[in-house]
Each structure stands twice: as C-alpha cells, then as structure tokens.
Amino acid sequence: MMLTSDKIIGIFCFIDGLLKTSHHYEDSRRQVSDSEIITTAVVSSLYFGRHQDKARQFMKMTGMVRRMLDKSRFNRRLHSLAELIYSLFMQIGYYLKYISCEMNYVLDSFPVAVCDNIRILKTRILKGKQWHGKQTSMRRYFYGVKVQLLITKDGIPVEFGFVPGSEHDAQALRKLPLELPAESKIFADSAYTNYEIEDQLMETEQIALKVHRKSNATRKDSASAAFIKEYMRKRVETTIREIKGLFLRKLHAVTFKGWLLKITLFIFAFTINKIIP
C-alpha cells in the first residue's frame, strides 16, 4: 500500500465525518482533535506495523498534524478513545448492513497469541488456562484470544469480538451481536455447527446460518450447497490473511486492554482502507 497525502486526508475526512454523524463532543481548546489522534493510529496500523511513535513523528514532520502530542500524552489520549473507536467501527458496519442492504456474510475466527508458549508463565497480560487454545488447521497451540470476525461477501469486516483461546467457535456464536437484516445468510465452517443456534436465528431473526457440513453431520449438504459454502469460506480466509499481514510478528502491550486495542485498530484500519479508494 502506498502512503500518500491524499490517502491520509481521505482517512481523516472519513473519520471526522463519522464523529460528526455520531454527534461526538470534544473540548474546543484541544490542540489536537480526536479525529487527528484516530487518523494517526490508523496510519500507524496500515503503514507502520503499529509502530505508533513512527507514525506520530511522520504525521508531525509532514505537517498533517502540526501540533502533535508527545508520545506519552498521545498514548493516553488514544487509550481513552478505545470505546469510541469500536463504536465507529460498528457505525461503519451498520451502514454496510442496513444502508447498502448487504445480505451475504462470512464468519470465521483467527488466533492472536500474546506470547510464545515458552513464555506463558512470565507473561503479565493474561493469566489462566482459558487463554490456552489450539489452532487445529495449523496443528499448533497458542496462548491468547480468538478473534471472531464477520465480513461481507466483498471481504469488509462488519462485526468482530474477542473470546478466550480455549473457547470453541460454536460457543462464541452466542457472544456476537449478529445484528443483520432479515433474510441474511451467514456462511461458516464446520466449527460453528450448532443446530440449536441455527434454528433460533432462523425462527427469531430470519437469518440463515449456512455452516459447512462434515461427512458425518446429521444435516447434510447438497453438492451445490457445499460448493457455495466452500467458495464463500475462501473469501474470509483471504481477509484474515490480509489483516494479519498488517500485524507485527509480536504485539507488545503493557495491559490487556492496550493489547486488545492494538488488534482492534488493525481491524478498524483494514476496514477503512477497504472503503476509501
């Protein structure tokens, strides 16, 4: 991705527009606005691997944010905006789901490890067996969270959430909002098999959960249905690979909330980048 002034201005205008639409208030005496703070964080995630200080210096040197805060103050301001950033993401998701009338979605999860297995006993961010999960497809264990990700058929995230690494995807289904238009379809792999939730979604929300069936499943797929589900699943695998491509090899943070904020910013930045040409 090429970093240009036009791209940064586009990101800023988009974020500023979202804040105005949501009637966001901030003190007019501030030298650096919340829009500038969030834009810098997005630029950091897209182009600097979340090296926040490099992005902060870049925005100052190029004159994009002339009165840029120092490292400590910027970090405090950004952390105070964590809930607002998630709210802005949900606002984008609402637009895609209800204004653009998107009807087809794909659901999948991916692990994010807080540390290597050998360092589990030393980490201070997480404690407990619930964070110790297994990535079956890669035949490897990890210590951290699973990111549950719901995307459109074009690969744009509209919902996401965090669950402990040990939690099964079928259980995590109950923790996602899944606030979608009636008659929507959600495609997912066999790990999300839960007939009770499938029936509830259809009966109460008129949402069809299209889970890929295993050969021994009680409910079978026709050949055409299996083909469509496999095709849709490849879309979310591509999106996850692109999001993780923005990550550094390791995400460093002092607190668990700060660590989750970094992951949130990667997903938020990826979404904005998909929307803004």
Automatic annotation (TrEMBL):
Q: Which species is the source of this protein?
A: Pedobacter terrae
- Where do the Transposase DDE domain residues begin and end? 105-244
- Superkingdom of this entry's organism? Bacteria
What GO annotations for molecular function exist for this entry? Answer: DNA binding; transposase activity
Q: Per its UniProt record, what InterPro entries does this chain match?
A: Tnp_DDE_dom
One GO biological-process annotation of the entry reads: DNA transposition
**Pfam families reported for this sequence:** DDE_Tnp_1_3
Q: Which NCBIfam families match?
A: transpos_IS982
What is the official name of this protein in its record?
Answer: Transposase DDE domain-containing protein
